[in-house]
Design goal:
Keywords: Methyltransferase, Plasmid, Restriction system, S-adenosyl-L-methionine, Transferase. This protein has 29 helices and 17 strands. It is an alpha/beta fold. The protein has four domains: 148 residues, tt1808, chain A (Alpha-Beta Complex), CATH 3.90.1570; 150 residues, no CATH class; 310 residues, Rossmann fold, CATH 3.40.50.150; 45 residues, no CATH class. The protein binds S-adenosylmethionine.
Length: 694
């Protein structure tokens, strides 16, 4: 479809929607004109007027799939400037840039704010006809002040995602061409995929396309990230004097970027961010360099210092498809959870912290803040703190983000070293120094006498291990290999265990006595058969300080099936048995300090405290050896505990044979809906025992 068709179609939709319903609250729409020139130095694609003939908004429409030489991106500075110019000439309060897939509305009257940072609201469009009607309402609401503009960081993320959407398919085509034309590159690519454990058979069309698509997405993402990070450094007083402003020459963008980046690594460092497998830089970027260059220049209009590490993480979420992230057992941990766990496990400014599945660094950033707060003299502590943080991550991209996220915590200080290793945690050996340089692909500095010997192991291990069900674990033998080590002796761990169970067992090898291990994970281990082995492992190796669960309303459902576990390594059995374990169920959102106070307060065993905010059950650890399903501590009604303690009550299995009955398949009969449970007055205890479908 040509550009003209796009804006004529949209024009026709707007016209029809207005004649259907001109009155939209604060605005009564009137005429709509296409190719409007009156009083303009150019030709505005669409102008929408109110019923008094005053312009309300103008639309500049561009094709979404242009050839790169034309401006086709609604965030492109040139398109925005053009549309803004028309809005200014006509006195229209709003202008929009549109490319059939996306429309962005801008506030034309905002004074003193750079154009690209103007209030804006972005829409993804699936049906332009339907959207034309929506747009009229939205603009009327914006006029009335009833609609919020997008937050500045959302705007930036949308902008970056749009660029990534533009670049990925073009890089994919370049990759395919390059593979066809250059046999050496083809063999490098095949070797590289094999080394990454990626199955890639060029004769299998589906597989070939999938691998190449993903690779292209990652390559596009990497280059965008490097550019953004360079510009962040460029705007920081500490680094700006050491690096040249990033202004690649037209038609030499790829070559110039390589130069800028290698100069940065030589002069300043950040190897972890800028150096990785050469294979990424071998793809020609000719098809995207115009757009990339325009983006680089456009970044001068943003105040990058306002974007924190959360923004970088969200860019990653936006550009790497969700199903891909899910397949890797990856997703982000809410910052409040990271903060809760580091608050309960990191005790002093000298603590060393390991996250064995660090993703994009949520826990390490949280630990950074915790160490920072604990430092007697926080100023200048950046290097000290970074030297106390270590991460392992199997996937290159989140690992790259961790490095960026940690480095940008203090841009007034130099970052010499970010200790994030790209490795399968099950290949990392106890007391092996984790080498940040390994991640940079620049040699690696592993040594057998590393952090462990120097510092006596980590002082805290934290994280959100992946959730990968046993049937999907690739190499179970490798993952289970450590179970027979003298240190942990867990050979009997059920082979039905989800991978997080092995993160717990292997993580244990990195902990000395008295050290805390805090993580969030699926709570299946609290009521499954394999979970009993996990429970036993904890009882045999740790003082269980607290297990924390969250009711539906606390984290909007996101964490109902998860639990936070806070442990302290303890080799002395009598100490373990006399420990009082806490089962805390949060019913309302509480501050981290309040939760920490409940966990840290000394408690008597066999207590049941229930109030509007939480329910707390305490048990002496010795008593837990006889409990199979620990979920009862969170959900059973008080009567259960009374009955359980009664000498006349025994388990059914002790007096009768218990076996599985006939499977009826009559699910509607057995599965309830949460709403029905409410109506039947079965809350608050029984919904967890009954199967609910929503
Ligand atoms: C649930 S996510 C952790 C998210 C992280 N806490 C964050 O907020 O970004 C689990 C992470 O473990 C990584 N992972 C999966 N298997 C791994 C392994 N065998 N070794 C190391 N990391 C692994 C995944 O790539 C993913 O980033």
């Amino acid at each position: 479809m040509s550009e003209a068709d796009i804006h004529f179609d949209f024009f026709a939709y707007l016209k029809a929607a207005i004649s259907e319903r001109p009155d939209r609250g604060s605005v009564t729409y009137g005429d709509v004109r296409a190719e409007y020139t009156d009083g303009l130095s150019g030709r505005a694609d669409i102008v929408v007027f109110d019923d008094d003939g005053a312009p309300v908004f103008i639309v500049e429409a561009k094709r979404p799939d242009g050839d790169g030489s034309r401006e086709t991106d609604p965030y492109s500075a040139d398109v925005i400037r053009q549309a803004f110019g028309y809005a200014g000439d006509l006195g229209a309060p709003f202008f929009c840039t549109y490319n059939e897939k996306r429309l962005v509305v801008f506030d034309a009257f905002e004074k003193g704010v750079p154009l690209l940072e103007r209030s804006q609201k972005s829409y993804i469009i699936s049906d332009p006809e339907e959207f034309a009607d929506t747009l009229l309402d939205e603009v009327a609401d914006l006029m009335e002040g009833d609609k919020n503009w997008d937050a500045v960081d959302d705007v930036f993320i949308e902008r970056v995602n749009t660029l990534h959407e533009y670049m990925s398919p073009r890089v994919e085509t370049e990759l395919e061409n390059h593979l066809n034309e250059d046999e050496d590159f083809q063999s490098d690519f095949e070797q590289w995929t094999a080394a990454q454990g990626i199955e890639y058979d060029r004769d299998d069309e589906d597989e070939r396309e999938e691998v190449q698509r993903e690779f292209a997405q990652q390559a596009a993402y990497l280059i965008i990230n490097k550019v953004i990070f360079y510009k962040i450094l460029e705007s920081s007083p500490t680094y700006s004097k050491d690096i040249d402003p990033l202004v690649p020459r037209p038609s030499h963008v790829q070559e110039d970027l390589e130069e800028y980046f290698s100069h940065l690594v030589d002069e300043v460092d950040f190897e972890a961010i800028y150096e990785h497998d050469n294979i990424y830089s071998e793809i020609p970027l000719d098809a995207v360099e115009g757009k990339l260059r325009a983006f680089i220049l456009e970044l001068d209009d943003y105040d990058l210092s306002q974007f924190n590490s959360d923004v970088i993480g969200r860019i990653y979420e936006g550009v790497i498809p969700a199903d891909r992230r899910r397949a890797m057992g990856e997703y982000y941990t809410p910052p409040a959870i990271c903060d809760l766990i580091t608050r309960l496990t990191v005790q002093s400014s000298d603590d060393t912290v390991l996250d064995p599945a660090c993703g994009s660094g949520g826990f390490l950033v949280s630990a950074y803040h915790r160490l920072h707060d604990k430092l007697p003299e926080p100023a200048g502590g950046h290097e000290h703190i970074l030297s106390h943080l270590s991460g392992v991550e199997i996937n290159r991209f989140p690992a790259h983000l961790t490095a960026i996220n940690l480095a940008i915590q203090d841009l007034s200080a130099y970052t010499e070293w970010v200790d994030v290793e790209i490795k399968d945690f099950f290949d990392v050996k106890k007391y092996q120094k984790l080498g940040g340089r390994e991640m940079a692909g620049a040699g690696g500095t592993e040594t057998e006498e590393g952090l462990g010997d120097q510092r006596g192991g980590y002082d805290a291990v934290v994280g959100n291990p992946p959730y990968i069900r046993q049937e999907n674990i690739d190499d179970k033998d490798k993952v289970r290999n450590h179970l027979s080590s003298d240190e942990i002796d867990a050979e009997d761990m059920s082979s039905y265990s989800d991978i997080y169970a092995y993160f717990i067992t292997h993580g244990t090898e990195f902990l000395a006595d008295g050290v805390d291990f805090g993580f969030i994970t699926s709570d299946r281990w609290l009521d499954t058969q394999y979970g009993e082995d996990v429970q036993q492992f904890l009882l045999d190796n740790y003082e269980i300080r607290a297990i924390i669960k969250f009711d539906r309303q606390v984290f909007d459902d996101a964490l109902v099936d998860s639990s936070v576990v806070i442990l302290r390594r303890q080799s002395d059995k009598s100490e373990r048995d006399s420990n009082v374990a806490k089962f805390l169920r949060l019913k309302q959102e509480l501050s981290i300090d309040d939760i920490a106070a409940i966990v840290e307060e000394e408690a008597e065993p066999n207590k049941l405290v229930t109030n509007d905010d939480y329910r707390l059950v305490t048990r002496k650890q010795a008593a837990l050896h006889h409990e199979k399903k620990w979920n009862v501590f969170f959900f059973a009604p008080p009567l259960y505990f009374d009955l359980d303690a009664h000498p006349a009550v025994v388990e059914l299995g002790d007096i009768a044979g218990v076996s599985r009955g006939i499977t009826t398949g009559a699910n509607p009969f057995f599965f309830g809906h949460t709403d029905e449970f409410d109506e039947l007055g079965l809350e608050p205890y029984s919904t967890h025992a009954l199967k609910a479908t929503g």
